[in-house]
Design brief:
alpha+beta, UDP-n-acetylglucosamine1-carboxyvinyl-transferase, Chain, four-stranded mixed sheet, 23 strands, 25% strand, binds ligand EPZ
Length: 424
Amino acid sequence: MEHLVIQGGNKLYGEIDISGMKNSALPIIFSCILIEEDCILDNIPRVSDVENALEILRLMGAKAHFIEKNKVLINTKNISENICGYDLISKMRASSYLMGVMLSRFKKAFLPTPGGCNFGHRPIDLHLKGFKSLGASVVCDDSFVSISAPNGLVSRKIVLDKISVGATINMILASVFINGTTIIKNIAQEPHVDDLICFLNRCGAKVSREKNMIVCDGVNKLHGTSYKIFPDMIEALTYTTYLGITKGEILLKNINFSHLKFSSCIFEGMGYTIKHSNEELKVKINKIPFGTSVITKPYPGFPTDLHPQLASLLCFTKDGGIIKDEIFPTRFRYVNELQKMNAKISNIDNYVLIKPSKMRGATTDATDLRAGAALIGAALGCREESRINNVNYIVRGYENIVSKLTSIGGKIKIIKGDTKNGSN
Ligand code: EPZ
């Protein structure tokens, strides 16, 4: 298995181009099943989750491939009514979007229960309850889901029991062709929901979002288009945590500052100097950051996808802090790994308490995508060499992270093959 070797202690200086947002690319790629013409998607990150999503479409008979570095052509005119690629689907949470698009186009969907980052139970009850509200019948067990609506779906007012990005997206995907007006309330307001709505409307859909409600007027057909997806806010914020650990000054390009507003205030409170336009974010810090405490919330609150990376940063601050994860209360497998690096960190229920720590380089295992990103940050702050196993998790969501960090002074390399002398 590949692993990373990092020699920390260097300040970071320079500029980084932020990639397109993985969590936008995935629903938009799957939504192309609703469109039987060419779709050209730009700013698509070359990460393994995207490659897997394209492979699933190809296995179903679609054209789906990169035509330029970050540009993808998709045409699903000739796809099968049957979902293929079960081994890929069971690895990826985003494959849950196949339920909504297959129901919309073929009035049925049969697939393995979607996978996803392994930080605890990842239910899809809200998705299934929503499909039933729209008139579908659902049969599922621990391994497979079967959804069908042979007479088509019916427009309804749906109120989601809980704010869920995936369920919100699936209700939109299921509603675009429903005759009449479908209303979805208590929705997620993440930028990637708006990104999908923009894309679908560019293809002729009639979807609007008014605060925490989505209104969808059904149309008969969608047409192809060209579309550039939003930049990755979590990638930008991840590099911002790295700077607080290493010190220095970096310019993050190709961002959308409106997505980073709330989180930027947290970093300014920790002692960062932050200057921005809507497309660029300049972050600078040359002293030990102050600590902070946050509770993760649905957007625009503090994102759960930045929780592990902030925990790493807090190990290197004057006074540490507390993070409460209200979204994923079991997203704490990274804690043991940071403890291998001498972190004074402890998890109680859905809280983690971090004290200032004398961190040391060590061999650790990435346990999921954002945990892996957190371990990179911790290693960048240690003079001793660190090794991080399970790079496969990290490359799911961070395009070119080794070359990007190297370009701003990080000493990091990826070692292919397995010289198993790391942690087990
Ligand atoms: C999406 O996951 C993202 N994944 C996650 O990012 C992100 O952490 C999460 O949204 C929250 O922002 C993708 O976009 C591929 P949810 P999703 O439905 O849609 C509960 C990353 O690192 N819930 O908003 O699965 C759920 O357990 C990944 O990029 C139900 O109870 O998240 C959680 O407590 C990790 N029943 C809460 O809702 C359901 O049917 C929010 O989950 C669905 C969700």
